[in-house]
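U., I forgot to send this yesterday:
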Amino acid sequence: MLIGSTVGLVTLACLPHSFEFLTPLDVVKIRLQAQKNPFPKGKCFVYCNGLMDHICVCMNGNNKAWYKAPGHFNGTADALVKIVRNEGVRSLWSGLPPTLVMAVPATVIYFTSYDQLRALLRVKMGKHEQFAPMVSGAIARVGAASVISPIELLRTKLQSEKLSYRQLRTCVRTAVEVDGWVSLWRGLGPTLLRDVPFSAMYWYNYERGKRWLCQHYGTGEPTFAMTFVSGATSGTIASILTLPFDVVKTRRQVELGELQAMNLSHKASSTVSVMKKIVTQHGIKGLFAGFLPRVIKVAPACAIMISSYELGKEFFRKHNQDRELRHLHTRNT
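Result:
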């Protein structure tokens, strides 16, 4: 247990710079996922240009309309440019403090649980031990995601729009007053639907990929490059397959304080209803909003994380072996 926690902390120590570097991609992803089409197909709207009012009909959503809604993003690059132009460069690092805060409990809980469960399941599952990483990864993610869910909600809210911490406190206070403290776990359902299969697929594909690379290059132990490539590849696959639930999670969490302020808390949508609404408004591609920034962020993050994890394990394994040898040598002399 102690070694698992220590490895988790060593892994965490290697990640702050990657958090800082990848935060803008997270902000762009959240903005792309949170934006809603204000002019559905066939709907009328009134636009005033300061001189006169115009009645317009959107025949093909917002893309074919001559009027573009302010703040509407047409892709990753467009979102980056508009955020910097309208809100300043600092907005690209919105939500960094809660990201760093939640990294500590998330990493320690996740890696400690994963190590202990994998060791136990490899013994219990016998000839099916190849599935131990998948099952232990999924179970470990349930605990970690549940603990940090309120902090992730605050991060998502900060990244979804330009908010001061005073405005964020107002949103939280409104939600808690209306729905109680349970409102801080808003979006936990789609978060688990995203993170649990992500973790299961990630560890299963990672272990298989690492084993294949070792066999291909004829080595008994994986190198740093092997773990890096295996981590990046498995993370990319898992991030793509679980992206729809990430979109739903974002939509649910950015509503913090908004529904309560409009007395609509009792109408909070389920995961399925949110997905249906997204498909109705944007088509199937709406479920994959933020695809590019999520993949660009997840691939290096997973690679760095797993490489640090493996290096930490190898360090403490050698440290323990050397200590045992010294102990035996001292006792024999």
